[in-house]
Design a protein that fits this description.
It comes from Oceanobacillus halophilus. It is found in: Cytoplasm. The chain is of the alpha/beta class and 319 residues long. It folds into two domains: 3-138 and 256-301, Rossmann fold (3-Layer(aba) Sandwich); 140-252, Phosphofructokinase domain (Rossmann fold), CATH 3.40.50. Helices cover 43% and strands 18% of the residues. A seven-stranded mixed sheet has the order 3-2-1-4-5-10-11, with helices on both faces. It has a four-stranded parallel sheet with strand order 7-8-6-9, sandwiched between helices. It binds adenosine-5'-triphosphate (ATP).
């Protein structure tokens, strides 16, 4: 394989740039040309593709977002869209593609691989919701952003003696809320993967009030519901004043942490190795700090689970 392409797709995540850098530098190290695709699969279909060199990825390892930009494309989900994308790559002599993104992006990679065009997936999403890897690129940075927010809200929660609800991103996954809640000492962590009775949450708040607790912090994952509605319900049930902070898109930005940069560098480089080894339709990941790779079909058929031990511990520590 003498020419490969790389694109970012779906939602952006801090560390995607470090992954792009690793793909480009690793490929060039092996005398392979690299082409960067702008705007994900949409740009691929439109031929928005440029040759990259060592300099194209200079000074980006520390930047959030993605220099290749990302997009969502419904047209690419069609057979015609996928054939068009393959034609664009063939025109330039590109023989393999690294796709950095989430599970939706891997479905695209799966479709291209099935049509004979080898793709390797690199998990990049703040949600940490991809099976087959302990961590996804961007999760650690986002987690630290959420934690900083919890610490700040805690200052004002103590001063005003109120109950604060902090709503995190994560789509249908509770990892961000769980990790940030445990690290931030939250009283309650409400995530989609578990079912705690609403009355239990209220009872815990009331027990805290009875023993003179000045404030409470609840971390709520967006996949469970709306923070403001939860606030209203708590007020109705307990008469406790609540304030809600929806963290929103700040969770997707910022300088990637060391953890994310190292992960992105390792996964990006391994993706290139797999393409050069003639592999296709696989996703790279990390398990117990070792690099692994799995068939994309397997990844897409599995479910992501949260760490139950961590969830139980968070409850034990917030009695
Ligand atoms: P995030 O988790 O951050 O949302 P994602 O990769 O899951 O990232 P999606 O919007 O689901 O984001 O997918 C990104 C793109 O991948 C889509 O816009 C589409 O172009 C392509 N894609 C998604 N599903 C399919 C599919 N079934 N077949 C072909 N392509 C797909």
């Amino acid at each position: 394989m003498k020419k490969i392409g790389v694109l970012t797709s779906g939602g952006d995540a801090p560390g995607m740039n470090a992954a792009i850098r690793a793909v480009v530098r690793k490929a060039i190290y092996h005398d392979v040309e690299v082409y960067g695709v702008k705007y994900g699969y949409q740009g691929l279909m439109e031929g928005n593709i440029e040759k990259m060199d060592l300099g194209s990825v200079g000074d980006i390892i520390q930047r959030g977002g993605t220099i290749l930009a990302t997009a969502r494309s419904d047209e690419f989900k069609t057979d015609d869209g996928q054939h068009q994308a393959i034609e664009q790559m063939k025109k330039l002599g590109i023989e393999g593609l690294v796709v950095i993104g989430g599970d939706g992006s891997f479905r695209g990679a799966q479709k291209l691989s099935a049509k004979g065009f080898p793709c390797i997936g690199v998990p990049g999403t703040i949600d940490n919701d991809i099976p087959g890897t302990d961590f996804t690129i961007g999760f650690d940075t986002s987690l630290n952003t959420v934690l900083e927010a919890i610490d700040k809200v805690r200052d004002t929660a103590t001063s005003h003696e109120r109950t604060y609800i902090i709503e995190t991103m994560g789509r249908d996954a509770g990892d961000l809320a769980l990790w940030a809640g445990l690290a931030g000492g939250a009283e309650s962590i409400i995530i989609p993967e578990t079912t705690e009775e609403f009355s239990d949450i209220c009872n815990r708040l009331e027990r805290g009030r009875e023993r003179g607790k000045k404030h409470s912090i609840i971390v709520l994952a967006e996949g469970v519901g709306n923070g403001f509605e939860y606030g209203e319900r708590i007020k109705e049930e307990t008469n406790l004043e609540t304030r809600v902070t929806v963290l929103g898109y700040i969770q997707r930005g910022g300088t990637p942490t060391a953890q994310d940069r190292v992960l992105a560098s390792r996964l990006g480089a391994r993706a290139v190795e797999l393409l050069l080894d003639g592999k296709a339709n696989r996703m790279v990941g990390i398990k117990n700090n070792d690099l692994v790779d799995h068939e994309i079909d397997t990844i897409l058929s599995e479910k992501h689970f949260i760490n139950k031990e961590m969830y139980n511990l968070s409850k034990e520590l917030s009695i």
